[in-house]
Automatic annotation (TrEMBL):
The chain crosses the membrane at residues 21-41, 61-79, 91-110, 122-149, 169-187. Signal peptide: none annotated. Keywords: Membrane, Transmembrane, Transmembrane helix. The keyword Transmembrane helix applies. PANTHER family: DUF420 DOMAIN-CONTAINING PROTEIN (PTHR37692:SF1), HYPOTHETICAL MEMBRANE SPANNING PROTEIN (PTHR37692). This is Putative membrane protein. It comes from Sinobaca qinghaiensis. It comes from the Bacteria. InterPro entries: DUF420 (IPR007352). Pfam families: DUF420.
């Protein structure tokens, strides 16, 4: 009896892993696909009368700031083995990231990108931060989703293994998002 229930448990884990892969792949394609689509079609939404669209990049930076604070707080609690508080702050980080995504997509659907006006060394620094931010933002989508799914399904060892990569990369993306905003904001 133990052998057959062990086989069922293994089969359920295999099915669970397959559904997690499907969820992560689907969300990654949808999220990164929307951002890519808007990159090529930006500004097609037209003007929104009476609404200053430049507030949206500021909101992006605010949401990224919240994400950073929530991630550091989640890290603080997990290092103290307070799983309940860790989960709450991870949920908060996903919420602020989702709000960031909404404002980011809205802005780029309605407005053209702003060109960076600096030159010389500051331009090189800006573009290094921007390019590394973009590349890691693409990568963090499936990493964060996979890590989250392993955590909420109590696959602790898998969660810990991937979280060691996810946490610092997600922190980098959220921090550099704010830095990019601060560097380009004078040119809006």
């Amino acid at each position: 009896m133990s052998k057959s229930s062990n086989q069922i448990s293994t089969q359920q884990k295999g099915t669970s892993d397959k559904s997690h892969v499907a969820i992560v792949v689907t969300l990654t394609i949808v999220i990164n696909g929307l951002v890519t689509l808007l990159f090529f079609m930006e500004g097609l939404g037209g003007d929104v009368e009476g609404f200053d669209l430049t507030i949206l990049p500021m909101m992006n930076a605010i949401f990224n700031s919240f994400t950073t604070v929530f991630l550091f707080t989640a890290l603080f609690f997990i290092l103290r083995k307070n799983i309940t508080m860790h989960k709450r702050f991870i949920y908060a980080a996903f919420t602020s990231t989702a709000l960031f995504l909404v404002t980011y997509l809205t802005y780029h659907a309605l407005s053209e990108s702003t060109a960076f006006g600096g030159s010389g060394a500051i331009a090189a620094i800006y573009y290094f931060i921007l390019i590394s931010h973009i590349i890691l933002a693409i990568i963090i989508v499936p990493l964060a989703l996979w890590t989250f799914l392993k955590g909420i399904t109590s696959q602790v060892e898998k969660h810990r293994k991937i979280a060691r990569w996810t946490m610092p990369l997600w922190l980098y993306v959220s921090i550099t998002g704010v830095i990019v905003y601060l560097m380009i904001s004078p040119y809006y």
